[in-house]
Amino acid sequence: MELLYEKREHIALFTLNRPEAMNALSPELFKQLHQAFEDFAQDPELWVGVVTGAGEKAFCAGADVKTWLPFVKECRQKPWLLPTTPLRGMELEKPLIAAINGVAMGGGMELALACDLRIASEKARFAFPEARLGILPRLGGTVRLPRLVGSAWAAEMMFTGKPIDAQRALAMGLVNRVVLPEEVLDAALAMAGDICQCAPLAVQAIKKSMRRTEGMSMEEALWCENALGLPLYDTEDYEEGRRAFAEKRPPKFQAK
Length: 256
Fold this sequence. Notes:
This protein is of the alpha/beta class. It is built from 10 helices and 10 strands. It folds into 2 domains: about 5-195, Alpha-Beta Complex (2-enoyl-CoA Hydratase, Chain A, domain 1), CATH 3.90.226; about 200-245. The strands form 2 sheets. The protein has a 6-stranded mixed beta sheet, with helices on both faces. The protein has a 4-stranded mixed beta sheet with strand order 4-6-8-9.
């Protein structure tokens, strides 16, 4: 399998499993990502996802040139052949954390950007080399990177194609945290565990509000936030949260 998909209580772990190819994206891997993300989205027992790469060298080195380029050319004439993922075409309400254990380039960096949170190894490197190949990032890079780090940093990275290290990525706001290489996955799983201590429906509504209000006027954004927030008062998790707070005990949420 080019993708390993595991369920650990309320956490889904997605591991790109092509270490011999620096976990590069192939058509088959993309299809398996689609299937796994679909299952993650529909399983009520899964609340948070963690995405990482097999091995120590790469999170994902981008597209597998030998298999990906012919596939993309075919998809130009038949766009329905390109599987939907959080990169494009799939709006995933549940939070995703990228555990970036090594190189994240091109499509691999776009996969990291499609996640909500990013934890990087000290050895991680980030780059968008597309302009040096005569193309542009087409899986959300030119859209998500400027929104995350600002247009100046994004322009420098994409115009020059030069890589940056983990500490510079942290300073830019590209990643949330930098840890030792052997701690990357554990740190991501710990963060996922922290999120699982919160009401999952509330977390999903927060993510939805953050995403949907981008680009809205303040008035529109506040209306959208209110519309997404009010239904939470009718959930069982809200009642459980109130009781747990009053009884001074950890809440037991059920995503209901």
